[in-house]
Specification:
The protein is α+β, with helices and mostly antiparallel strands. It has three helices and twelve strands; from the N terminus they run αββββββααββββββ. Helix content is about 20%, strand content about 50%.
């Protein structure tokens, strides 16, 4: 009987794995919850009745960080990955991941942040963008086509 359950478990794992698609090139935009009267810039987004402002932009090619952007009142300030590597204050200011593997499925995103650390998010897909809500934060995964 236990062999039956083992075979069933393995088939479920394989079936779930095949439904996932790995993104090679993608962007991640992280948003923070703000009050409805917060008018910092035109970047504010309404999601499920609450307002969010972007604070971090990350661009990855083949899973490796290429560019980082920090949203300020002047707009998006872009930095290359080598500039971020040299700037210890920026690395301490925001949590930046150098290598990432993103897998997307029908209603889930698996975000592997290098090593063994991984996060599984339930998502809402709108116009080829994956929206993941985690408390005060909203993270949007955008695959490059």
């Amino acid at each position: 009987m236990s062999l039956y359950y083992l075979v069933l478990l393995m088939s479920l794992i394989c079936a779930k794995g095949s439904a996932m698609k790995r993104l090679e090139n993608f962007r991640v935009i992280s948003y923070r919850l703000v009050s409805s009267d917060y008018h910092y810039s035109d970047e504010r987004m309404k999601w499920r009745g609450k307002y969010y402002m972007p604070f971090l932009y990350e661009e990855y090619r083949k899973g490796t960080l290429q560019n980082v952007g920090i949203y300020k009142s002047e707009g998006l300030l872009l930095f290359t990955s080598s500039e971020v590597e040299k700037d210890s204050l920026m690395r301490d200011y925001v949590y930046i991941i150098k290598r990432r593997e993103i897998y997307v499925g029908k209603k889930v995103v698996i975000d592997k942040e290098g090593g063994d650390k991984r996060h599984v998010y339930n998502t809402v897909i709108v116009k080829h963008r994956y929206y993941c809500y985690t408390g005060k934060y909203l993270r949007v995964y955008i695959p490059d086509t």
